[in-house]
Amino acid sequence: MRRLFFVFIFSFCGLLSAQTAFQLKVSGEVAHPLDLSLSDLSKMPRKDAVLRDKDGSSHTFTGVPVMEVLERAGIPSGKALHGAENLSKYVLIKCSDGYQVLFSLAELDASIQDKNVIIADTVDGKPLPKEKGPLRIIAEGEKKPARSSYQVREIFISSIKN
After folding, report:
1. Over 50: is that where the pLDDT of 6 sits?
2. Is 47 within the bounds of a domain?
3. Is the pLDDT of residue 150 over 90?
4. What are the residues whose beta carbons fall under 8 Å from the beta carbon of 75, sequence distance 6 or more?
5. Number of domains in the chain
6. Range of the domain at 52
7. Is it the case that residue 44 has pLDDT exceeding 90?
8. In the prediction, which pLDDT does 17 show?
């Protein structure tokens, strides 16, 4: 029994360590590169987004709006988001399994579109399942959830160069 207790404690500590060691990297053409912990993200403004899964069930995800993270990294938004230099920027979301999805910076900005895109850490009030977390990008309202990808690890910003 005592041995089982130590195995449990060791496993729990390993899980806790993995959760606290996670860092969401924000890099590329940013004024302030970021490495955000789950704790950092939990202190930022939060928003809900609803997503239908493949079987048609709706789930409510909660997390940080992507633009909130980008603004902390020094990316222009609102009135500052104008001109070819900024309107040609894109946001590449990189996931642990190599999956990547792309958004234009303009489509994420509330002054241009009403698109609700968040970096979620909970679904229906519970942490994301281990195999799909700790973070998931949620693009609410899209007909297919192809850009609502799992295990987000990095947000990379760049621009199209001719």
Report:
1. no
2. yes
3. yes
4. 30, 31, 89, 105, 157
5. 1
6. 23-159
7. yes
8. 41
Q: Is 11 exposed, middle or buried (0-12, 13-18, 19+ CB in 10 A)?
A: exposed
Question: Is there a domain that residue 38 lies in?
Answer: yes
DSSP string, 115-147: --EEEEEEETTEEPPGGG-S-EEEETT-SSGGG
Whether the Cβ atoms of residue 159 and residue 88 lie closer than 8 Å to each other: yes
Question: Strand, helix or coil at 19?
Answer: helix
What is the CATH classification number for the domain harbouring 127?
3.90.420.10
CA distance 68 to 79: 16
Q: One-letter amino acid identity for 90? A: Y
Three-state DSSP class for 31?
coil
What does the pLDDT average to over 43-50? 97
DSSP 73-111: TT---GGG--HHHHHTEEEEEEETTS-EEEEEHHHH-TT
Residue pLDDT, tens place only, 94-109: 999 999 999 999 999 9
- DSSP 8-class letter at 12: H
* Spatial CB neighbours of 93, under 8 Å, sequence gap ≥ 6: 100, 101, 102, 103, 137, 147, 149, 152, 154, 155, 156
